[in-house]
Design a protein that fits this description.
With 479 residues, this protein is an alpha+beta fold. Helices cover 46% and strands 19% of the residues. Strand 5 and strand 6 form a beta hairpin.
Length: 479
């Protein structure tokens, strides 16, 4: 598929390898060409110096041992461009005829006296030129053409200056053919042009196969997720590869997400079922009382109807608050004085079965919603008063980096194995502590959710001497 990851990976790898090979091949060809040209220039220089040495030692121009013109054409020119000697079969160099002038024939072996260089002229004549009977150390290179027996070819020429025995300055121009160099470069280039497409095909195929193998678990994950979506069965899990790579971690994370989603959906189902059950009881009771009141007004239990209405109202308020918490509602960032809030809330609880004692404490502020924190305190006090025997105590204090609100009672306490379960929604224990006067089992669940939304925690432990229960709300203090 053109839009698949495999196709894009194969195409990308092929393009990258192609660019790298083109760059590397170009560099290899340039280096190879430079080296071969350097070798050709060195061969030409050797031939030019051999001929120049013969001239400097007094060899007559018509008796010079010149190399074959096909391999190394040599032209010796004097002042004014006069051709003094030329290799056999060489007709022209750089499109200029070298047969038009008749070479001079100096006296064989005529070697003039060699001047003695002065202290101020190390080269002997002050001009940097070779002395009679010497060869200049400098050499010049240039590319050109030569016509050898009617065949024109490219050469690398080396130009060396020398002086014969009579002091005449001559220039020896020797060439080395560039055809072998170009043939070698062309062969390498052709090999690259043939091998590059084949190599790119191999790279594309290998990348396709490797990517296909690597992404096979991803396709399995995708197929299983599609099946889960179609069946809405959140108990299914995607296959986890044995390899410890990114795909395996993706599969594990996906399964963890599915597990969390399954738990959330199951919790929502239980919540709806329990809420329906809890709402059904007060509604049915209220309807029955109203129907009896319609038929027999003298039998209408008005206080009972009011109690059921209040219970229904509280349950609806609890469900609404839980829905807002589940939706991720963030609490306000108001500064709340815990000690002042405790005193205010306790002062409004007149006529409770067991009075609440408030421990003396200094002001301690936290950030959050005063209404939600007051709801937590009210739920904890309601729970403590339902199960206390004779005492309920509230204290606010600083414990390290936490602001702590503690509610204690002297009731039967909470069994250690049930201390987490009581914070679940619609949970009511079977022992004496769970006998609830109309409660739906949402108070402690709401209290913990609010605590966690405020960045804190809510826990329960045994009271002093392992009697009663102590609920401890921990919140980060305001900075």
């Amino acid at each position: 598929m053109p839009g698949s990851v495999r196709a894009r990976a194969a195409a990308g790898a092929t393009v990258v390898v192609a660019l790298a090979l083109i760059a590397a091949g170009t560099a290899v060809l340039l280096v190879l060409r430079s080296n071969l040209q350097g070798q050709a220039g060195l061969q030409a220089e050797v031939r030019a110096r051999e001929v120049a040495t013969q001239i400097a030692t007094g060899t007559a121009y018509d008796r010079l041992d010149l190399p074959d013109g096909d391999d190394h054409p040599v032209v010796v020119t004097g002042e004014g461009g006069r051709v003094l000697a030329v290799s056999e079969d060489v007709r022209a160099v750089d499109a200029k005829s070298v047969r038009s002038a008749k070479p001079a024939k100096p006296t064989p072996g005529a070697v003039g006296p060699t001047p003695t260089p002065s202290d101020d002229d190390e080269d002997g004549d002050g001009s940097g030129e070779p002395l009679p009977g010497e060869v200049d150390d400098d050499v010049r290179h240039r590319d050109g053409t030569a016509d050898v027996d009617g065949k024109v070819a490219d050469y690398r020429f080396a130009l060396v200056e020398a002086k014969d025995g009579q002091g005449e300055k001559v220039t020896v121009r020797a060439g080395s053919p560039l055809a072998p160099e170009r043939a070698a470069v062309g062969s390498v280039r052709d090999a690259m042009l043939i091998g590059l497409p084949l190599l790119l095909v191999v790279v594309a195929a290998v990348t396709w196969l490797v990517t296909r193998r690597a992404l096979r678990p991803v396709e399995g994950i995708r197929a299983e997720m599609a099946a889960i979506t179609a069946s809405t069965d959140l108990s299914r899990r995607v296959p986890e590869p044995r390899a410890r790579d990114e795909i395996a971690r993706l599969a594990r994370t996906t399964n963890e997400t599915l597990a969390a989603l399954e738990a959330s959906v199951e919790r929502q189902r239980r919540f709806v079922a329990d809420a329906s059950h809890e709402l059904r009881s007060p509604i049915a009771s209220l309807r029955t009382q109203l129907e009896v009141g319609v038929a027999h007004p003298e039998l209408l239990d008005v206080p009972g109807a009011v109690a059921d209405t209040v219970r229904l109202q509280r349950l609806a308020a609890d469900l609404l608050l839980l829905a807002r918490l589940d939706a991720g509602e963030r609490p306000a960032d108001a500064r709340v004085d815990l000690a002042a809030m405790v005193r205010e809330e306790v002062s409004q609880r007149v006529g409770d079965r067991i009075p609440v004692r408030v421990a003396e404490s200094a002001g301690l502020e936290v950030l959050g919603s005063r209404g939600q924190l007051a709801r937590v305190l009210g739920n904890l006090l309601d729970n403590a008063q339902r199960h206390a025997v004779s005492s309920v105590r509230v204290a606010v204090e600083r414990a390290g980096e936490w602001a702590v609100l503690r509610v204690e009672d002297d009731g039967p306490g909470v069994p250690e194995g049930e201390r987490e379960r009581i914070f679940e929604r619609f949970v009511r224990l079977d022992d004496a502590r769970a006998r609830d006067d109309g409660g739906a089992g949402l108070g402690l669940a709401i209290a913990r959710d609010v605590a966690e939304r405020h960045g804190g925690s809510l826990t329960v432990a045994a009271g002093p001497a392992r009697a009663g229960a102590v609920f401890e709300l921990r919140l980060p203090p305001a900075g």
